[in-house]
Design goal:
Length: 396
């Protein structure tokens, strides 16, 4: 249980390594040999020690080890990182601790070591149960390898498993996505994240499909807009029928298994990013670690911790009161439960309708928002067009 004498905080730990870059990925990730993994892990532990010294007033309620693909590293390195986190930060006894894994990099002994290190939640990047769709995404695993990894995770006692799925991918049809949903829900994971593919500039998919480019003979086409819409609505309906509650635009969970770490992001719990390129929101400021590996490895956390942390973080962005109000709405309205008028007053000392009254009235009258007591939330239609709705809360 979180200490009432300390402020809650979340930790994100970035592992930038992967076995092979997927065709759609624009994250800070790359292949590297084992000696680089070891050097990075050692430097990350030094950063953890330096950062922990300045976070004594916080208690860590969740940890998320993401990437990249953290499971490409030797599991003993992950165990070393976990020991450092628990030693240098006040980690709550009931903290949710997640690691992202790829079925193509997951062996049985890794899962045992993760559990022994205190990791209690897995997030498995499946994306699709169709092996051809996986190949078209550039994934390194098959559905059969995912099944083995999932079964091993259950055997070693992981109580919470998330499965990542992706829609609107090359060659996908409504029927193939429905088949993916059926196969995954038969396994009864506690949590399912269902994201739609976004074509990002600088990726192989951008070269193939970006800016409305037509698919060539070499590459399968993306689903058309009608199929995308039908997949979106199928996801919500089918998962609901299988007992998965939609608690955020793209996230579904069995009751009591919502991802606490992600809810923290959406409800403005402070978080500290550790590792290459990791982002933070702490003390009302946003900052990001350098994405330059050579610079990161060269920082002297042991000898000059304060100076090294300043170099690591670069300039701080202090959010204005107006920007924080906007973010309160942008982030909170992603959750199906929406935002609380009481929380808004407690945070900003002013009523929600005083700041956003006309916008809220307009959205409610058009069926995009609804009010229940002191809570405001998006309707199903509002969720469908959330990009438009959330953009309405930009202050002049």
């Amino acid at each position: 249980m979180t200490s009432r004498y300390k402020k809650p905080m979340e930790l994100y730990v970035h592992i930038p390594f992967c076995a092979r870059k997927c065709f759609y990925c624009d994250f800070l990730s790359f292949r590297a040999p084992e000696p680089v993994h070891e050097a990075y892990s050692a430097q990350l532990i030094r950063e953890i020690e330096a950062q922990g010294a300045f976070c004594r007033e916080y208690q860590v309620t969740s940890i998320f080890i993401g990437g990249g693909t953290p499971s490409v590293m030797e599991p003993c390195l992950i165990a070393d990182i976990m020991r450092a986190l628990k030693y240098h930060f006040d980690v709550a006894t009931d903290a949710e601790i997640t690691i992202e894994v790829n079925p193509g990099t997951l062996l049985h002994n890794k899962l045992h070591i993760y559990r022994e290190a205190g990791i209690n939640r897995l997030s498995i990047g499946l994306q699709s149960t169709d092996n051809q769709e996986l190949r078209d995404l550039g994934r390194i695993h098959t559905f059969e390898e995912f099944l083995k990894s999932y079964q091993c995770a259950r055997m070693v006692g992981f109580p919470d498993i998330n499965v990542d799925l992706m829609s609107s991918i090359p060659g996908q049809t409504l029927e193939s996505f429905k088949n993916t949903l059926k196969k995954v829900t038969m396994l009864k994971p506690e949590h399912i994240s269902a994201y739609s593919l976004i074509i990002e500039e600088g990726t192989p998919f951008w070269d193939r499909y970006g800016q409305g480019k037509a698919a060539t003979v070499s590459f399968p086409p993306l689903p058309d807009e009608d199929t995308e819409n039908r997949i979106y609505h199928l996801t919500r309906t089918f998962l609901g029928e299988q007992g998965y509650g939609r608690y955020e635009i793209s996230n579904y969970a069995k009751p009591g298994h919502e991802c606490r770490h992600n809810i923290g992001y959406w409800t403005e719990v402070p978080y500290l990013g550790l590792g290459l390129g990791a982002s933070s929101y702490l003390g009302g400021c946003r900052f990001s670690n350098t994405g330059d590996m050579d610079m990161y490895l060269g920082l002297d956390f042991a000898g000059t911790p304060e100076e090294s942390l300043e170099q690591l973080h670069g300039p701080l962005q202090e959010l204005s009161r107006e920007a924080r109000m906007e973010e309160f709405m942008f982030l909170g309205l992603r959750l199906t439960k929406g935002v609380s008028e009481i929380d808004f007053v407690a945070m900003f000392g002013i009523k929600l309708e005083t700041v956003f009254g006309p916008v809220i009235d307009h959205l409610i009258s058009n069926g995009l928002m609804e009010k229940n007591g002191v809570r405001l939330s998006l309707t199903e239609w509002g969720m469908d067009v959330s990009n438009y709705v959330l953009g309405e809360f930009l202050l002049p």
